[in-house]
């Protein structure tokens, strides 16, 4: 029987060299799984290592960054050991990635239809006419009005919402097993965001794909995720099902992120709490718990010893000496 997990990330550690010559680990011992046909969230503020984790799965790390330790298994295959030509087959074909700002993912000088058509021609032996037909069909499926006319449009002629739909069409055109969506709705207004999330859910229902969604927005998590991993300063600090995370958040960082959700019926200005301080810079992580400098509950032990990620019951994992029970 096939493994229930499509993607398994195990003890992943990425290394780069800082200007002062010291090694730093923006992704530092990260483990989590993405089950088949499920949506998993990777959540945290900017700079926690979420994007780098995703780029490691795609094997598109910037020059100077490499994998120091760990394994990534995709559908039973050791991704990090695959020769680059095999990885190229998987990228875009079995694993697709969509990005926060679609403008940077699209080529400004080629019509959007042709760009998506190229994604088919790269992986499949079909005629151009047939590929074009499929692109137009996919444009319709992702809700692009006047799909035939839009085929000839250039990225700058489209709204942000339409551009993101083009990117989703490009991601979906080869029917991937795993879609990695890195802040796919951050640049969009809330109405368009809701439409895009609805679209991803529908495509998942129809195709059975798994989704790994990266976001700093717990509203997005509430909408779309089955499971959640909260990341802070290169490490997973909490993991649970969506229901568990929202009903029983344990890590003070997760609780802080929840307090930062604006209340729909409240006064935005007053209800928008934020966690004091910022994510520590690479190479500047505090000793002990990495969150201790911002944590209202930190004591001497938190400042000197590093907590491990431990099971608080039923697979709800938390990296904290003083997990909180908030009601
Ligand atoms: N090419 C690079 N060279 C050096 N440091 C980098 C590079 N790319 C990212 N970093 C650093 O690695 C850390 C993790 O970055 P990453 O982009 O993965 O965070 P993130 O949580 O995904 O944030 P964002 O949502 O802004 O993308 C940050 O401290 C960042 O400054």
TrEMBL record:
Compartments reported by the entry: Cell membrane
Q: Which GO terms describe its biological process?
A: peptide transport
- Gene3D superfamilies referenced in this protein's UniProt entry, alphabetically: P-loop containing nucleotide triphosphate hydrolases (3.40.50.300)
Q: How does it sit in the membrane?
A: Peripheral membrane protein
Q: Give the family this protein belongs to, as stated in its UniProt record.
A: Belongs to the ABC transporter superfamily.
In terms of CDD domains, this protein maps to: ABC_NikE_OppD_transporters (cd03257)
- One Pfam family of this chain: oligo_HPY
User: By its UniProt entry, which SUPFAM superfamilies does this protein fall under?
Assistant: P-loop containing nucleoside triphosphate hydrolases (SSF52540)
Q: Which GO terms describe its molecular function?
A: ATP binding; ATP hydrolysis activity
* Species for this entry: [Collinsella] massiliensis
Which key words are in the record?
Answer: ATP-binding, Cell membrane, Membrane, Nucleotide-binding, Transport
Domain ABC transporter, residue spans: 12-258
What the entry lists under InterPro entries is as follows: AAA+_ATPase, ABC_Ni/Peptide_Import, ABC_transporter-like_ATP-bd, Oligopep_ABC_C, P-loop_NTPase
Does DNA-binding count among this protein's keywords? no
Matches recorded under PANTHER family: DIPEPTIDE TRANSPORT ATP-BINDING PROTEIN DPPD, OLIGOPEPTIDE TRANSPORT ATP-BINDING PROTEIN APPD
Q: What is its main location?
A: membrane
Protein's recorded name: Peptide ABC transporter ATP-binding protein
**Signal peptide position in this chain?**
none
Q: Which GO terms describe its cellular component?
A: plasma membrane
């Amino acid at each position: 029987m096939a493994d229930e997990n499509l993607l398994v990330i195990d003890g992943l550690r990425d290394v780069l060299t800082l200007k002062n010559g010291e090694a730093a680990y923006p992704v530092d011992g990260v483990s989590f799984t993405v089950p088949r046909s499920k949506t998993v969230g990777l959540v945290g503020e900017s700079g926690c290592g979420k994007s780098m984790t995703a780029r490691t799965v795609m094997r598109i790390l910037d020059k100077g960054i490499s994998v120091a330790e760990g394994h990534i298994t995709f559908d039973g295959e050791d991704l990090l050991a695959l020769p680059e030509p095999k990885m190229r087959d998987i990228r875009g074909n079995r694993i697709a990635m969509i990005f926060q700002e679609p403008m940077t993912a699209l080529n400004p000088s080629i019509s959007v239809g042709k760009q998506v058509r190229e994604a088919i021609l790269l992986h499949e032996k079909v005629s151009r006419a047939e590929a074009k037909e499929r692109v137009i069909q996919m444009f319709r499926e992702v809700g692009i009005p006047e799909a035939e006319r839009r085929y000839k449009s250039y990225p700058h002629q489209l709204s942000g919402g339409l551009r993101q739909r083009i990117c989703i069409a490009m991601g979906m055109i080869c029917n991937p097993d795993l879609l990695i969506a890195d802040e796919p709705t951050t640049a969009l207004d809330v109405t368009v965001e809701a439409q895009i999330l609805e679209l991803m859910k529908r495509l998942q229902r129809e195709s059975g794909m798994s989704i790994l969604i990266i976001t700093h927005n717990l509203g997005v998590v509430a909408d779309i995720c089955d499971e959640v991993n909260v990341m802070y300063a290169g490490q997973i600090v909490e993991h649970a099902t969506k229901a568990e995370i929202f009903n029983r958040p344990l890590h003070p960082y997760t609780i802080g992120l929840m307090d930062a959700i604006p209340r729909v019926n409240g006064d935005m200005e007053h209800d928008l709490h934020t966690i004091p301080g910022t994510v520590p810079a690479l190479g500047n992580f505090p000793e002990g718990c990495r969150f201790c400098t911002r944590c209202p509950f930190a004591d001497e032990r938190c400042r000197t010893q590093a907590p491990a990620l431990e099971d608080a019951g039923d697979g709800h994992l938390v990296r904290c000496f003083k997990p909180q029970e908030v009601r």
